[in-house]
Design brief:
Blueprint: H1 4-9, H2 17-23, H3 34-59, E1 72-76, E2 89-98, E3 101-106, E4 109-115, E5 120-122, E6 138-139, H4 141-150, H5 170-173
Parallel strand pairs: 4-6
Antiparallel strand pairs: 1-2, 1-5, 2-3, 3-4
Helix pairs in contact: 2-3
């Protein structure tokens, strides 16, 4: 249980039995050193860590790279093209495939740019009634995102100081209820209950 260096200097240093158990090494005890045992354990741990990292990194790549015409997908709307409360994705349908690039159509029109498979995610449903008929007009992603979110808000923000009970309120004037962005949460008679 002594290594060659210690034998040459005349010192007898035993190898720690815990380190021997770590390696489960069956070679003769004269060839095994504390440093060698730790090095072998570190090598095995590094291999395990590398395998786990490769698996973790490949998890995000499990979406399909090939889509067919008619598949329902979604694209991310860039933050600069939307407000913080707007939807982050736009549901689309694949209209055509040209050189591994996809032309997409939304419920408001055909998107004016082509998308690669890495920019597209599956929508996750088989039917989406809004995408059954797609208008033939060409539209930008920004405009499609804006039109998608118009139904969520009234489109106007009044800054009334009163109760919004007269036609002076721009929301009431066009027949809409005041939204959450109107007049900072003060009392209002024009909110939907």
């Amino acid at each position: 249980m002594e290594n060659k260096e210690n034998r040459a200097s005349g010192l007898n240093i035993p190898i720690d039995p815990i380190l021997i158990d770590i390696t489960n090494n069956t070679s003769s005890q004269e060839e095994v050193t504390n440093h060698g045992i730790l090095r072998e354990a570190a090598r095995r741990d590094l291999e395990n860590y590398t395998k786990k990292m490769v698996n973790q990194m490949n998890k995000g790549r499990k979406r399909p790279n090939n889509y067919e015409v008619g598949d329902l997908v979604r694209i991310s709307v860039p933050k600069i093209d939307r407000f913080g409360v707007d939807r982050p994705t736009l549901p689309c349908k694949i209209l055509e495939k040209i050189n591994n690039q996809y032309r997409l159509g939304s419920q408001f029109g055909i998107i004016n740019v082509f998308y690669s498979p890495g920019e597209i995610d599956p929508l996750g449903v088989n039917q989406f009634p809004e995408l059954d008929t797609i208008p033939t007009n060409t539209i930008t992603v920004r405009e499609a995102a804006r039109l998608q979110n118009v139904g969520l808000t009234t489109g106007t923000i009044c800054n009334c100081k009163g109760n919004c009970n007269s036609k002076k309120c721009c929301c009431r004037k066009i027949g809409n209820n005041c939204g959450s962005r109107c007049h900072g949460g003060r009392q209002c008679q024009n909110k939907c209950e």
